[in-house]
Automatic annotation (TrEMBL):
SUPFAM superfamilies in alphabetical order: ALDH-like (SSF53720)
EC number(s) from the headed UniProt entry: 1.2.1.8
Matching InterPro entries: Ald_DH/histidinol_DH, Ald_DH_C, Ald_DH_CS_CYS, Ald_DH_CS_GLU, Ald_DH_N, Aldehyde_DH_dom, BADH
Keyword Metal-binding assigned: yes
Active site: E266
Lineage of source species: Bacteria, Pseudomonadati, Pseudomonadota, Alphaproteobacteria, Rhodobacterales
NCBIfam families in the record: BADH (TIGR01804), PRK13252.1 (NF009725)
Keyword tags: Metal-binding, NAD, Oxidation, Oxidoreductase, Potassium
Any single biological process term in GO: glycine betaine biosynthetic process from choline
Record domain Aldehyde dehydrogenase: where: 33-490
Family classification: Belongs to the aldehyde dehydrogenase family.
Protein name per the record: Betaine-aldehyde dehydrogenase
A Pfam family that the UniProt record links to this protein: Aldedh
GO molecular function list: betaine-aldehyde dehydrogenase (NAD+) activity; metal ion binding
Species the sequence originates in: Pseudoruegeria aquimaris
Amino acid sequence: MMPSARPIRMNKDDPMRPNAQPVASHFINGRYVEDTAGTPIPVIYAATGERIAQVHAATPAIVEEALAAAAAGQKIWAAMSGTERGRVLRRAADIIRERNRALSELETLDTGKPMQETLYVDATSGADALEYFGGLAGSLTGEHIPLGRDWVYTIREPLGVCVGIGAWNYPTQIACWKGAPALACGNSMIFKPSETTPLCALKVAEILHEAGLPAGVYNVVQGMGEVGAALVSDPRVAKVSLTGSVPTGRKVYAAAADGMKHVTMELGGKSPLLIFDDADLENAVGGAILGNFYSSGQVCSNGTRVFVQKGIKEAFLARLKERLSTGVVMGDPLDEAVNFGPMVSERQMEIVQGYIAKGVEEGARLVHGGGRAQREGFFLEPTVFADVTDGMTIAREEIFGPVMAVLDFDTEEEAIARANDTAFGLSAGVFTRDFTRAHRVIGALEAGSCFINSYNDAPVEAPFGGSKMSGVGRETSKEAIAHYSQVKSVYVRMGDVEAPF
Ligand code: NDP
């Protein structure tokens, strides 16, 4: 916990776990650093609205310290062998798994997501990324290209100092999804978490260094957009990876272009989920629940436009309503019986409430929820609108909350055309028992991360990322290596040079 804050409430059964809480605002050059001259950023527990900690935004001096440390640390790190680098990442993965419960509690306090989720999805997926990219680090090589007597060889080189900027919905996972491939390739990283969830990335940095990372290779600085902007525009930075909204993505991409920097953009979505008449009803309802209400709907890839074929529509709505009425357990997210938490912040709750009001105003049929829960904290009821039409605001704009829009359709061609009629292209899903159709439909949908008879699975082995306005580049999987390294090509002439004069 931060020195100026009230204590973070930890699990009373096991309150004394070592290193459970970060001890200062920033982590630079292998240690925690504080500078109270920076703007205070309160950390609010979304389930109660109480302030549980406070960090300070990075001052220009802190930003400079992080950049200098990252530039120096990167040289030391890149000089190590891939196998040595991988060993550090895999050791960090082991430590994260050992401390999963404490880290999950911190994630819950940072975001308000229920322990029922954070115990299985957050620190664990961060550990998966560190283990996976740690495993790849020793085999990142170039190629030998024979050209008769001459030949070319390529060298896969790190980019240098990378900046990661995170959203608030998955703070540990995002810190690891960006950090693990960056570090595997021999880069260093400066990570700026969202000001809404500043705590978890500090623990990632602490654990990486405990695992043997040289000082300066993974740094965390706090702050609002301006700190991110200062990092992006610095000439020492070679690459920027942002997870955030499309408007922020535009700004960061433009700033990066000014310095001709590499970018990865993981941005928003308004993804379609197509449910055909022949789908397994229970699985389709389950997929729609996962794709709209997990993390209280604060997931970028959510299938928030649920296109249901007319023959199954009323059965789908009836079963969905039944499962939402009987299955949702709202309450303190630290209680493991709870499966539905609050919005991350009061502001996000108000944004979502605005969209719900818009849905009603524009004539969608509210079939479930729609209100703020009668309890402390920023809780909204899981909300379902039916009879949504393509032009409605709730069918066009990313809401980032527990609001499902159900639209209906007659034919496959019509559903595909309407599903693709959006500027976003992050994810898409289809539920059908007809496998020929499943592959045909997925082939026609304009999206980067797709699902057949499932929704929102994100194993580290699979590429994740969007097309169209949802972003550029891919995180996770071998694909990420290309986005954190560059190839040097070397022509080797074995004979004499034939010059024209
Ligand atoms: P924002 O776009 O508001 O912010 C993202 C990050 O960028 C924050 O850390 C923010 O700082 C920072 N930032 C803001 N302005 C600038 C700037 N000019 N230069 C540099 N950095 C800046 O997104 P949210 O945090 O509200 O997250 C929700 C969004 O993220 C949704 O649109 C969601 O779809 C998307 N997202 C995408 C994912 C993907 O993988 N495709 C995954 C998760 C979320 P601060 O907020 O502290 O001011």
